[in-house]
Design goal:
The protein is mainly beta and 130 residues long. It has one domain: Lipocalin (Beta Barrel). 15% of the residues lie in helices and 42% in strands. The termini are far apart. It comes from Chryseobacterium oncorhynchi.
């Protein structure tokens, strides 16, 4: 029970200092080696994805929708979960966009971060200034 309370308070404090208008923009992966990925979150409740293999070949380019949920949470529709696999060897991996994904925004120092991995701190993206 203590762990649950700690997690809830962490989510509230880490997300409460992010304003909605700060969430929109372009995000890029942190520490990816096999792929390059851009995720653009737009104010009109749409997002764009572009995923490239390590040879800089564009393998996925699509748009879909999202919903902002409570406490800095976002739910992406038709989401490709990029786990930084070698897409030169497995290009068919990018065809798997038939899932929804919910994650939370975090603020680390001055950066806004979202993570999609199965474990904390994995498969994270950082918002960049354009």
């Amino acid at each position: 029970m203590k762990i649950f309370i700690y997690l809830i308070s962490f989510v509230i404090t880490s997300c409460s200092n992010i304003k909605e208008n700060e969430l929109y923009g372009k995000y890029i992966p942190i520490s990816y080696h096999n792929t390059y990925d851009t995720l653009v979150i737009k104010k009109n409740k749409e997002y764009e994805r572009r995923v490239y293999n390590h040879n800089k070949k564009l393998l996925l380019d699509y748009k879909s929708t999202f919903q902002l949920e409570s406490l800095g949470s976002i739910k992406f529709d038709n989401f490709y979960l990029n786990l930084d696999r070698d897409l030169v060897k497995m290009p068919e991996d990018v065809k798997d966009t038939d899932m929804s994904m919910t994650t939370n925004f975090e603020k680390k120092d001055k950066d806004i971060i979202i993570c999609f991995g199965y474990h904390e701190g994995e498969n994270c993206y950082k918002k960049i200034l354009e």
